[in-house]
Amino acid sequence: KGNGVIGNIYAMGLALQALEATRNFYAPRKWDCAQAFSVVSAHDYQQPMAIAQVLPALVGRSYLDVAGMDCAATEDTSPNRQLPLSPVLGAHGAPRAPIQVHYSITNTLQGKHFHYSTSVTVPSGSTLLQVMEVAAEEDPQTFSFETEQTSWGTYVTSIHGLAASTEDRTYWQFLSAGDALQEGVGTYKPHAGEHIQAVFSTY
């Protein structure tokens, strides 16, 4: 893509590793990765799997380099862990300003079709998952949902009793202004007034 993204933001780690490991085969033109690295370094990765794939590329290595590593020579240099921000308080303990997010769920694919919309108020900086939780608390009969934890974060398996299925090749797709979100529900942070759509889709 013109903005330096290869696939999507979560494919970037492996893509950069592959291109770095095979750059000698891209003759006669040297592959210019500056824009792609700029995109990666500016993104706030949260999922451990995404971080694990991006870090080797950022230090000029790939998973292929693991075979030559001397693990006995490494030292424990893990950085100090920062406590996560409170869902209600900001970095300095000040209350986070509330924002309103519009959220809708739509199924025109299977069974009885439906479309429901709501607006919820959450602290600024809340994730989409937190928006969904508030919607479900306010109207559980309509906006209830189920999730499962994966190595890529929280995956929504069901909304309004309608479950995704690998057999039927269906899933819940999340969109903003008609474009698919590039982050999962556990890390994407909607802005004030944004309309998030959950659409039952097929692939």
UniProtKB/TrEMBL annotation:
Q: Keyword set for this entry?
A: Cobalt, Cobalt transport, Ion transport, Secreted, Signal, Transport
| Molecular function terms from GO | cobalamin binding
Q: Where in the cell is it found?
A: Secreted
Q: Could you tell me what this protein is called?
A: IF factor
Per the record, the major location class is secreted
Q: What residue range is the signal peptide?
A: none
Q: Which residues bind cyanocob(III)alamin?
A: 8, 53, 155-156, 181, 203
Q: Does the keyword Ion transport apply?
A: yes
Family assignment?
Belongs to the eukaryotic cobalamin transport proteins family.
A GO cellular component term found in this entry reads: extracellular space
Where does the Transcobalamin-like C-terminal domain start and stop, copy by copy?
125-197
Matches recorded under PANTHER family: COBALAMIN BINDING INTRINSIC FACTOR, TRANSCOBALAMIN-1/GASTRIC INTRINSIC FACTOR
From the broadest rank down, the organism's phylogenetic lineage runs:
Eukaryota, Metazoa, Chordata, Craniata, Vertebrata
GO annotation, biological process? cobalamin transport; cobalt ion transport
